[in-house]
Design a protein that fits this description.
Number of strands: 4
Strand order of the largest sheet: 1-2-3-4
Helix content: 40-55%
Structural class: alpha/beta
Keywords: Coiled coil, Glycosidase, Hydrolase
GO molecular function: beta-glucosidase activity
CATH architecture of one domain: Alpha-Beta Barrel
Family: Belongs to the glycosyl hydrolase 1 family.
Strand content: 5-15%
CATH class of one domain: Alpha Beta
Largest sheet: 4 strands, parallel
Number of helices: 11
Distance between the termini: 25 Å
InterPro entries: GH, Glyco_hydro_1
Organism: Monoraphidium neglectum
CATH superfamily of one domain: Glycosidases
């Protein structure tokens, strides 16, 4: 509900960014909830590409969006507002990290008190309870680690090179560019495909200990189908990323499916509308685990 309220507030404050003419059906017309069908923006994905792209552009000495398509609209006011939203999200995450640090400090203080208590105070039962509590506190403090997470479509880019086939997201933004406020797409995104070493170095500098990334089905098995050829260049990329993470003390965690079904599966049998997908997905999962499971110990989908 908080996200919906924030979207309503932004739409009321900046109606020109939502209700505008567009080539799609009902584009620019509000729906029953007061939203325009053109709404799919950084507000819905506040920690995704815009913040990283803007940061990289500044680091490279260019303007935000310089890594995107040359034909993408460059609306300065929209970019500024999206950066502002991302900055608010960053402050929210910083506040959450501060709370975690406070919790860790409280745990350590309690642990120190337990360890400093005179032996035998309260009897054997109390001593046993204190030892158990101390063990749980140690586990709790050890588990407080920084995690970074990303989606392939927001990060990788390189959607049409090195053997990768189109996904449903690629087709969607190509056929309905008006559904994305600034008309951008994932061809470059954060350019993680080419700049993963820089990204890993940034994560290390932030103290990140775990990185959950998603594996592009279209990059690993371009046909999307059971028995399909495995794209070695895709394997090489994920191997390089995983090895770079481990080299820098960051544990890799892989997501198999993150809303980027190969377009081939959608065309063949309407994707998740058909049980044919089960065998194809199983094959993709088995390929991924066979190639990366020796180093990736956490898997989600």
């Amino acid at each position: 509900m908080a996200l919906v309220q924030r979207l309503h507030e932004d739409e009321r404050a900046h109606p020109e960014s939502y209700h505008r003419p567009g080539p799609g059906p009902h584009a620019g017309e509000p729906d029953a909830d007061g939203f325009s069908p053109t709404l799919l923006t950084a507000e819905a994905l506040p920690s995704a590409a815009p913040s990283l792209a803007a940061g990289r552009a500044g680091r490279d000495g260019g303007a935000a969006g310089t890594r995107g398509d040359a034909g993408a609209p460059a609306a300065a006011e929209v970019a500024a507002r999206e950066i502002e939203i991302c900055e608010r999200e960053l402050k929210r995450h910083e506040a959450a990290l501060t709370r975690l640090e406070a919790e860790a400090a409280a745990m350590l203080a309690e642990l120190a008190g337990i360890l400093a208590a005179p032996a035998g105070v309260g009897g054997e039962a109390a001593a046993a309870a204190a030892a158990q509590r101390a063990a749980r506190l140690r586990e709790g403090v050890a588990s407080l680690e920084v995690l970074a997470s990303a989606m392939r479509a927001e990060m990788e880019g390189a959607t049409d090179i090195d053997g990768r086939s189109p996904s449903v997201w690629d087709t969607y933004v190509k056929n309905k560019p008006w559904e994305i406020r600034d008309g951008s797409n994932a061809k470059v995104a954060c350019d993680h495909y080419h700049r993963y070493k820089e990204d890993v170095a940034l994560m290390k500098s932030l103290g990140v200990k775990n990185y959950r990334f998603s594996i592009s089905w279209s990059r690993l098995v371009p046909s999307g189908r059971k028995g399909g050829a495995v794209n070695q260049k895709g394997v090489d990329f994920y191997n390089a990323l995983i090895n770079e993470l481990l080299k820098n003390g960051i544990a890799p965690a892989a997501t198999l499916y993150h809303w980027d079904l190969p377009q081939a599966n959608q065309d063949a049998y309407e994707g998740f509308m058909s049980r044919q997908l089960v065998d194809d997905f199983q094959y993709f999962a088995e390929v991924a685990y066979a190639k990366f499971g020796d180093r990736v110990k956490t898997w989600t989908t």
